[in-house]
Amino acid sequence: AQTIHQWPVAEIKAVGSPLSLGCTIKGKSSPNLYWYWQATGGTLQQLFYSITVGQVESVVQLNLSASRPKDDQFILSTEKLLLSHSGFYLCAWRGYEQYFGPGTRLTVL
Amino acid sequence: GQQVQQSPASLVLQEGENAELQCNFSTSLNSMQWFYQRPGGSLVSLFYNPSGTKHSGRLTSTTVIKERRSSLHISSSQTTDSGTYLCALVTNAYKVIFGKGTHLHVLP
Question: Is-contact A93 A2, C-beta < 8 A?
Fold first, then answer.
């Protein structure tokens, strides 16, 4: 069975500090991977997707970047956090349907 | 305009009543998926339903592509059904659009 692990579970960071969120998928070869973000009380928005190692496509510009260094790993990062980056981040892989990780709660102060 | 519209935005029911949640879309559909979002934010997949009708216990999902709509029916609602329900539209192989959600509250 496939599993999705996201880390960290939660982060509290200062404005202007760097950020790195991770996602690992086990049990699935060459998955299509996705990053989503949801502001508190807001709508889930797709940020990035990747269909292969080293290739990432941006869907929404939020001053964030993503990378796929390994087949089973997807990283979301920024060098300078903004207050508006606060929210809930979800990683997913998709075959026909989507399978989501448990998410990371980010608070930027 | 919004490509995916969920309705109603919120719904209050007495336990035992039925609920009908709608998702209307204005763009091409590759597939449709319904989720329950837990209070902490994580998602529980209810249905993957690109077309037709699917059943799971007290839940039924119906997607009619040519009418650009998908619905989630909850029969004999229970207090444990309370929460947020989301539809997610896949427009092509890689672009996904979520609805704003329906907040359901079932009273005992």
Answer: yes
Cβ within 8 Å, pair B48-A96: yes
Burial of A47 (0-12, 13-18, 19+ CB in 10 A): buried
Q: Which residues in chain B touch residue A45, judged by CB atoms under 8 angstroms apart?
A: 98
- Spatial distance between the Cα atoms of B100 and B102, rounded to a whole number of angstroms: 7
* A104 pLDDT above the threshold of 90: yes
Chain A residues within 8 A of B99 when measuring between CB atoms: 43
Q: Whose structure tokens read 């997807």?
A: A74
Minimum distance, in Å, between the CA of residue A80 and any CA atom of chain B? 25
Question: How far A37 CA lies from chain B's nearest CA (Å)?
Answer: 11
Q: Which of B43, B48, B95 sits opposite A46 (nearest CB)?
A: B95
DSSP string, B41-96: S-EEEEEE-SSEEEEETTEEEEEEGGGTEEEEEE-S--GGG-EEEEEEEE-SSS-E
Place of tokens 């510009």: A61
- Number of A–B residue contacts, CB under 8 Å: 48
Question: pLDDT tens digits, residue range B26-72?
Answer: 888 889 999 999 999 999 999 999 999 999 999 999 999 999 999 99
